[in-house]
Input
Amino acid sequence: MEVCYQLPVLPLDRPVPKHVLSRRGAISFSSSSSLFGAPDPRQLSQRRGAISYDSSDQTALYIRMLGDVRVRSQVGFEPERRSSHPYLCIDFRTLHTRLGWGSTPASSGPERRVHRLLSFQRYLHSSRLLSGLPQQIPLHILDEDYTGQARCMLEKVGNWNFDIFLFDRLTNGNSLITLTSHLLNQYGLIELFQLDMVKLWRFLVMVQEDYHSGNPYHNAVHAADVTQAMYCYMQEPMLAKSLTSYDIILGLLAAATHDLDHPGVNQPFLIKTDHYLAKLYRNTSVLENHHWKSAVGLLRETGLFSHLPAEDSLNLERELGSLILATDISRQNDYLSRFRMHLDQDNLCLSNASHRHFILQMALKCADICNPCRPWELSKQWSEKVTAEFFHQGDIEKKHKLEVSPVCDRETNSVGNIQIGFMTYVAEPLFAEWGRFSDTRLSQTMLGHMGLNKASWGGLQREQTAASEEAEPGVAGTATEDAAVAARGNGDTAAGAGGTSSKEIPQGSRES
Output
């Protein structure tokens, strides 16, 4: 018997409560505090999104203080040790106590010992507000036409042509919050897991807030897009009849948080700039580990699963990490080989919990790099966004006389050759195997779109080459050929990688 849950749906046009949106309220700061000192205006002007640079040090760039939650609880993760950079060693809990905001009687001390470590960008934002500067991104009130259209779109959330960019505009930039809450509600997971609506809403707001809108690609819209794709995969017949409610909530949460607090640069950049996260995770799945720990921190801060037995919540955190870590593109071949082996031996049994979890890992990997499989109008936008992020990193590396990462040099690469390389060496092998596992109309549609998109980029490349040769015979053609060879041999990921050989994928090159 099918059970239908009727749960309260938060209206799209309802403003988020101030105490939810303003997480800065839990820990206030003052720009005049001697603990921080006055920020250097030159450094502030050099920030972009998640990155803060010290222009006086060209050999060790420090990325902004990533506030990925070091919750000191009796169980779970040890706090991450930050480097000696002045911004990275600040203990915001000390600041909270010293300045006396939100102070409570000593008797309630244990309940208020731990506070979230705020990110560097959050500190700067609050400092601007406290200094009397206007907020740069005002909240606009949407009329009923917008919210009505957003609701209509949600009725077709399982459609592969779902336009996440339009949906984000219709929800006033709250696509991740609105989409994830809708899917949790649609599956009946809120009632089934007895989730507190206030805690859930606060968690989703915090997740969306911790994606950096300054990133052209790795932002909350990308997370919403991956979540929608994950939903499409979980609706496939083989998964829909096998996945448990626990699998579903785990898959949706992993998709929503898989790139949480992404700094807008890749792992090799963190390694060669001696970032503390690279040292902490020993140069292995640095970003993925950070995304996972950030997600766990938000779960604990909001207490979303605090009503569950401790062992159950810890297992959920560990399995959430297993899914997020699977998105590391440097481990692509390991997962792909295992997937092929299962398919060749025809021994996948979805009644087995470990096999279901593995399929969730593969589904999340597909969702993370599914941009080439979307219709051209959507795929092209994603391609341009991820390439803009690559090129921005390359500009930074050139400015600070660092070795430019593959596909990050705008002078030797183009959107087209990056995408063709990525589709050839990363996306096509993965989606071909997914098509073997789930031979459905959706799989055929995705492979069809990818073939058409690859041909479209090839056509654009030929047009650009012809135009360049007419303007500068003999030179432009060679440059384009060199870029294509570089994309095939050395690529990072576009929507992850500009093209990597199927035999070797450089560590840390990823789209997610």
